[in-house]
Amino acid sequence: MVATILLTLISTLAALSPSVAIVPEPAWNGHTTPDSVTPATFTPYYVPPGAKSYDSSSPLIHYSKGWQEVFSSAHVGNSFRQANQLGAYLLFTFSGTGIEAFGPCDELQGMAAVYIDGKLVRMVNGACPNTRRLVQQRLFWVFDLSPGKHTIKLVNAAVRAGSNHATLSFDAFVVTLGQAPTARELSRDSLPPATLQTKSWALEQKGSTGVNAMQLVVISPSHALIVDKVEHNPLTIDGHPAWAALYNLENHSVTPLSLKSNSFCAGGTFLSNGTLINVGGNPVVEDKTSAADFGDVNGLQAIRIFQPCISQSVEGCAIYENPQRIRMASPRWYSTVLRIDDGSAMIIGGSKKGGWINNATTNNPTIEYYPPKSIHGSKGLPIAFPFLEDTLNANLFPIAFALPDGTIFVAANTQAMIYDWSKNSAHHLPPIPNGIRVTYPMAATAVLLPLSPQNHYTPEVLICGGSNVDDRKPGYEISSQNPASAQCIRMVLNDEGISRGWEVESMPEARLMPDAVLLPTGQVVIVNGAGTGISGYGNVRNQVGQSNADHPVLTPVLYDPSAPHGSRFSRSGMPTSNIPRLYHSVATLTPRGDVMIAGSNPNLDRSELKYGTEYRVEWLRPPYMSMARPQIVKGPKQVLFGQTVELTVGLATKSSSKIKVALMDFGFVTHAVHANSRLVYLDFKLPEDGDRLSIVGPPSGKVYPPGPGWIHIVVDGVPSEALHVMIGDGKDPQVDDAALKKCGVSFSYCGTFADDDSQCTGEHKHKS
Ligand SMILES: *[C@@H]1O[C@H](CO)[C@@H](O)[C@H](O)[C@H]1NC(C)=O
Ligand SMILES: *[C@@H]1O[C@H](CO)[C@@H](O)[C@H](O)[C@H]1NC(C)=O
Ligand SMILES: *[C@@H]1O[C@H](CO)[C@@H](O)[C@H](O)[C@H]1NC(C)=O
C-alpha cells in the first residue's frame, strides 16, 4: 500500500545544478563504450590478468576421434573444434584452482558432460538461450578446486530437444592459477594449515560466489545475498556478467540477480517489514566495464529494494530499482546504513563521488533516512552532520550502532560520538586512543557487545584494528608496507563508562580491514585483513598487484569479552587459511552457527594477479558445530516487543542457569563494517516439562530495532541452529508525508520522491 503510493509519486531526472531545472542526466539511461554509439553484444570470454588461456589448438588438449577444427576469426585464436558424435571427448590437465570453458553456442549444440578429476560434475547445455548464434560464450566454470593438478573432460552427450544428434563445440579454456600464500606468509602463523582440521575449530573451503563478495547479508535460513561492483564476474545474467547473486548456504549453488545500477561500495539494511534496501554506489565506470557491456546505470543515489525472500528455491526473488522514482536525496559512495528504533534506515555520510580517500570537496557530511523523514526542518532533505566534517579525511563507511536508548554511536577516523537523531544533537566521546584511525581507508572492524537483561542492556562497543597512517598524505607517500594497528578498544556507553574512557587491548597481530563476527555464545571471532597497508587498490607505493595492503592475516582469533583483561584473545586450535582476504572481503555468521568467509578483490576488475579476485568460500566452524546441540523444534514466525512466546525445544538440560536465549542480527557486512550486527539475550522461563521454553521478546525497538532476527538457544556454550523470526509487528516503516511532498535540492540533485520540481531551489540549511 505504502509502496504503491511511493511508486506512483512522480519525480524528474536529476538536475545538473539548481539553476538548470530539468535536464535529464544521461547516466540514468546507461552509457555506451566511449566513441561508440551502439552497444555491442557482450562477449564473456575474458582472461583476467594473471590467468592463463589455452586455445582449442593447444597441443596440451587431447581430443578423441571425431573432432574437426573450424577456422573463423570470430573465435579465440581464430579457430574452434567441434564434434558431432555421441561420446566424443576432450581431455585437459591443468594446474590451478579454477577453470572456465568457452565456445560458440547455437541451436545445433546439445548437452555436454563435464568431468573434473574423473567425476561427473555438471551437464552443460551448449545451445544459446535465444536462436541467435553467439561466440566465445562461457559453457562452464568452477573456482573452488583445491590448489594443484586437475583434469577436465568434456564429453558430447549428443542430446538436444527433439533430436538425438547434437554438436559439442569448444573454443578455449581459461585457467585460474590460484594463489598460494608464500612460505614467508605461512611461517608468520605457526599453526596448522587449513587442510588439517584440529578437533576443535575447523576451516573448510567449499563453494564459490560467482560474483565477488564485496557485500554480504544472510536473507533467509537457506540463502545469503551477495552484492559486488560491476566487473567481469564468471556468473552471468541477461547476457552480461552479474554483480549480485543469491548464495545457497545448503548446497552452495549461486543464482545471479539483475541489478540496474553500479552497486560499488553500497551499504544496506533490512527495514522493519523485512524488506532489504541496498543504497548508494558508483557511477558507470567507463572503459572496460562500461554500460555497453554491462548495461549499468549510475548508482550514486540508488535505492535497490529486495523484498523478503524466504523460499528455498528463491524463485521470483529480485532486486527492484527505479532510479527515476526512488532514489536518495544525495549521492553517496561508502555510506553506512543502519536500522534505527522506528524500523527505518538511517544513511550516514559517504562521498559525493567515487574515488579514494574522502576530502572536503567530495565529502557528503549529512545523514538522510529511508523512507525520508521531515524532521528538524529538513523536509526529507539530508540533515547536516558536522561530525563528518570534523573527521576528514579517513571517515568513509563510518562505524555505527543503534543504542538501547535510541541514540546512535558513530565512530570515524580518530573520533567517536553519540548522536540523538530525534533531537539532532551530538555528544562527543573520548577520541580513539593512540591516534589510531578506524574508518576507510584505515578500516577497523567493530561490534556492539551483547546486550542482556542482566547488564540492563548497557551498551559497550568494541573496535579492533585500523592504522595510524597520516590521512593527509597523498597515496605516493603511503606504502602497502606501513604497519597496521593491533589495537582493540572498548567502552561502556553510559556516563560512568564514558568517564572511564576506552579500555585498550592488543590483538595477537595487527589487522587492517578485519571482520568481527559475533557468535551466539557472546564471543567474537575476528577474521580476514592485512598486517600492513591501507584499504583500496591502485593508490599507494609498493602495491601488490593493485592491492594497497599486504601481509594477509590468515589465522582467525577468538575474543571473549567476559574474560579478564589480558586473557581475552585466543588462537588455540584455530586453523590457518591459505586464502588471503584483503580489500572487499566479508564474513558473517550463518543460521547454522558457523562463519561464512568470502571475497577479497583489491582490483579494478577481475584479476588473477596477486592479490586477485577471490571467489572461493570458506566455512569456519567453531567447536560447537561438531557437538550435540540444542534444538529449536518449533517456534513462532513473529515476536512482538515484550511478548511471551513458546518455543518447542530439545535441550538436554533442565537447569535454567545453563541456558541463554540469543536474539541476533547477523548484520549487513561490507568494508569491515558489520552494520546492524547485534546480540540481545532474551528473558525466558523453562516450564516443568523441559521441552518447551517461554521466551520474552526484546523490551523495545530501541533494544532491538524492529525487523528480522535469528534466535539461538545456547546451552552451556553450545548454540542451536537459528530460528528466523520477525521482531515487532512487521509493518512498513512510517512514511512521512511532509518529506515526500516537498522536493528539495541537495548538492545538485533533486530530492528522493520529488513530485514538484518548482520546489528545487537550493540546499536545505540545517541547524547544527
Ligand atoms: C540447490 O538447492 C536448490 C533449492 O533447493 C535447488 O533448486 C538447486 O537445484 C540445488 N542445486 C544443486 C547444485 O544441488
Ligand atoms: C578529492 O577526492 C576526489 C575523489 O577521489 C579527487 O578527484 C580530488 O582530486 C580530491 N580533491 C582534493 C582537493 O584532494
Ligand atoms: C517495506 O517498506 C518499504 C519502504 O516503505 C517498501 O518499499 C517495501 O515495499 C515494503 N515491503 C513490503 C513487503 O511491503
UniProtKB/TrEMBL annotation:
Domain of life: Eukaryota
Residue ranges of every copy of the Glyoxal oxidase N-terminal domain listed in the record: 242-624
Keywords per UniProt: Signal
Species in which this protein is naturally found: Mycena indigotica
Protein name (database record): Copper radical oxidase
Pfam families: Glyoxal_oxid_N (PF07250), GO-like_E_set (PF09118)
Positions of the Galactose oxidase-like Early set domain: 629-727
InterPro entries associated with the record: Gal_Oxase/kelch_b-propeller, Gal_Oxidase_central_sf, Glyoxal_oxidase_N, GO-like_E_set, Ig-like_fold, Ig_E-set
Signal peptide annotation: 1-21
Gene3D superfamilies xrefs: Galactose oxidase/kelch, beta-propeller (2.130.10.80), Galactose-binding domain-like (2.60.120.260), Immunoglobulins (2.60.40.10)
